[in-house]
Structures are given as structure tokens and as C-alpha cells.
Amino acid sequence: MTGARPALKSRLRLMGIAISFGAVSMLASVPASARGPDGIADIAEKVIESVVNISTSQSVEVKGGKDAMPQLPPGSPFEEFFDDFFKNRRGGLPKGGDKSGEMHPPRKTNSLGSGFIVDAAGVVVTNNHVIADADEINLIMNDGTKIKAELVGVDKKTDIAVLKFKPVKPVTAVKFGDSDKLRLGEWVIAIGNPFSLGGSVTAGIVSARNRDISQGPYDSYIQTDASINRGNSGGPLFNLEGEVVGVNTLIISPTGGSIGLGFAVPSKTVARVVDQLQQFGELRRGWLGVRIQQVTEEIAESLSIKPARGALVAGVDDKGPAKPAGIEPGDVVVKFDGKDVKDPKDLSRVVADTAVGKEVEVVIIRKGNEETRKVTLGRLEDTEKVQQAAAKTKEDPVEKPVTQKALGLDLAALSKDLRTKYKVKESVKGVIITGVDGSSDAAEKRLSAGDVIVEVAQEAVASAADIKKRVDQLKKDGKKSVLLLVSNGEGELRFVALSVQ
């Protein structure tokens, strides 16, 4: 046995060598494109002059914090040391100030990001969050030249900003590519200023498209595993043609560094935003004038829609474009201007991207049938409505209402006392919920006391008896769920599907 061991070891060594040579030969036989594109260096060299570092500064009021004089017990041996340190560091405390640091003069803070030139006349694209609240914006070119920039306009909803500057010498501009043509697994290149390391080039693939990560109303991010870190924000994401297909905007990371989850605003969105900001200094988005919600499986079953799809109209603005076109609550939008609508986000994006004043065809499903409506889009106003809180009034004793139970709900007729108790407007009609069984489907769907049931299975109801009658009929018809149109006290509507089993 002992004599056989050296021979066995020898055979294993020879086998290991054979495997190694096999691996080398296999690697040599793999096409270069499968190991990564050879042209990254050429593309980076071609476009890197168009990428700029963005440095901003702003004044912030110092109130305490790490730059404030630390609070020490009177007579502490460190009190004199820190007093001298802070006086030397800041040239003494301001007149009238004390050691608490509450009256220190404003101090300058700096931040860094990235951007890229889209017009050789001096137009730069970046993220809004890179330059937000900046007192001064400077561009640092690839050769180190520093140039002051001015803000043209921003769009907070897509986090895009446009800057302008006066070139001191000819500059390189890049073009937008078609982000809709990107394929999963396609190679992309990110260039930016991560951690102040300007001109950093990273490469990776497109991991996903149309990502909704709840950052805004028009989320449709490109996900990439190309390394994107702090400072890359606002920088370009290139395809292998050297075209900008996205603007690197954010990362998901528990550590603050790249873990291969980077997100870029697609160039199709950016190009339109940039064009409008240059033309108008603001965004002019299309407006349909409806409130929409998700079509769940239960709602789809109640409306006889297979498969579940589209955007359910929960409310129609009386002054919006949808009203005169005949669109009503309960309609499900499945196509807009020739584009399929799979969910509410799809409708929000396509409406916003459509020109104001354009007449479009909107395909809806109403009571199981498809209908086409023509709508002339209005303009979405971005000014937020400020609602004044109503003054609280002393509540009079309320007589206990007569209630009936259905669907795990306590239901009552809308009386004056109940309107006052639950602050329900006179314009709201229906049957009010006064209680909810905590173990019911209604509780899971977040119905609560004070909500008003306006319709059951798309038919108006005026009493609890109406609701029980409709529910009993649906059970007999073999329906699994019932669709309720529910209003809050302010008159805002939503659809809720409850199990009738």
C-alpha cells in the first residue's frame, strides 16, 4: 500500500495539469464578445471629454452639530482647551455668541456629482439632487478646467436638471441613444466622479428595464450592475455605440457603496425633459383628469376582465379633459394613444409624455365591453394644492344610529348627525360604515368607520338594505367577490373588492 501512494500522487498531479491545460484551451475557444466587449477602451476614450464633474457650494446655518462648541461641565479641565481650540479655529466667537454655537455665521458646504455635455454650445445634463439649493455651480472638465455654470431648469419628478456654460475652448458633446432598444444583458458603460475620483469608467450589463422603485410618479429606471457610487449621480450611462442611454441617478445599498444595484433614468425620458427645459424652463406634461388605481384579481373578476390589466378610474375631475369625453368612475383604461396600459404606472407615464392639446384615443372597458373615447389632453399643473384644515367645532351628542351588518361591516343611512361626526360632505351620497369587524376581509382592505359606500357592483345604493340585496344576488349568481365604490368624507373615491363567500 505504501508503495502505491507515490504513484497515485503522481497520477493526480498529471490529472491536475491536464485539467489546467483543458481550462486554458476552453478559455481560448470562448469568443471575445462572450468575455466582454473589446471596444470599451475605444468608447471611453471617445466620450470621456464630454463628461464633467460638478461642484456646488451653498451656505448653511450652523446651529450646534460637530462644529459647535461641545457642552462641558463648568470647571471641567477640558473647558479651557476646547475654548481656545474653537476660538483659534473660527477666529473667535461672534459678537453676542456663546459657547453653545447657536450664533455662528453661515458656513459653506460643498458637494460633488457628475454631468455630461449634450450641446457643444454649452449645455450640460445632470441630476436635480446634485445641484439642488446650490448657491454656486462649477463644472470641472476632464482636463481640469473649471467653469462657472448657470441653471436652466429642473424637473424634480424625474430628478433631471439642465445647466448652461460658456466654453473657453471647443468641447465634445454626446448624443442620446434609444433606451427602448436596450436588451437585458447588453453591455453598458458608466462614467462619472465617484468619491471625487473624476473620470472613472466602469462597465456592466443591463440587469433590468422599466424598474419601479417608488421614487416618483414616473419611475421606469434602467437597472445596471455597472459600478455606480456616490458622486456618479448625474453622469451618463453609454451603450457600445457611445450614445447616452441613461442618466445614473441612484443606488440601493446598505453600505453606501456599489453592490451591483444601480439605476439610471432612461434616455427616452431624459431627452424629452431636456428639450422642454431648454424651451420653456419647465415641464409641460399631459393631463387626463382622472384618479386611477390598480386592477387587482378580485376587481378584475368583479368587472369581468380577463386577464387583470389596465388602470381603474376611481374618480373624474369635473374640470378635466376626461369628463367631456364621457369617461366615468368604474371604467378601466386598457389602451391610450395606441399604447397598451398594463397598470396605473403605465397610464401615468404615457399621459405625462403626451403633448398638451393632442387629441388621443382612449380604449376603456365598461361593464365588460370595450369602448373608445377621444380626449383632448390638458396640461398637468405641478403646483401643489394647499388644503386648509377645518376649524374644530364642539360636537353635540349623537343619537346612536340604526345599523345593519353585511360583509363584516356595520352600515347605516347617512344622517345629519353621522355627517357631522365623521365630517362627511353634503355632496357625498351612499351608506356610511360605522364599524368594521377586525377579522373580516373589509378590515384587511382598510375600510374604516366614516367611509361611505356609494355603489355596489356599479349600482348606486342608498340604504343598508340595498347593499344586502345586491350582495345576496351576487352570491346566488356564483360571484366570488363584490366591487364597492367607496368615498371618504372629502368625496375622494376608490374601488374595493370584498369576498362574498
From TrEMBL:
Domain PDZ: start-end pairs: 277-368, 395-489
Active site: 129, 159, 233
Record bears the keyword Transmembrane: no
Top-level EC class: hydrolase
UniProt KW Disulfide bond keyword: no
Signal peptide stretch: 1-34
PROSITE patterns associated with the record: PDZ
Gene Ontology MF terms: serine-type endopeptidase activity
Predominant location category: periplasm
Catalytic activity: Acts on substrates that are at least partially unfolded. The cleavage site P1 residue is normally between a pair of hydrophobic residues, such as Val-|-Val
Subcellular location: Periplasm
Gene Ontology terms: biological process: proteolysis
Cellular component GO terms held in the UniProt record: periplasmic space
Record-listed substrate binding positions: 129, 159, 231-233
PANTHER family linked: PERIPLASMIC SERINE ENDOPROTEASE DEGP-LIKE-RELATED, SERINE PROTEASE FAMILY S1C HTRA-RELATED
Name this protein carries in UniProt: Probable periplasmic serine endoprotease DegP-like
Species this protein is from: Bradyrhizobium icense
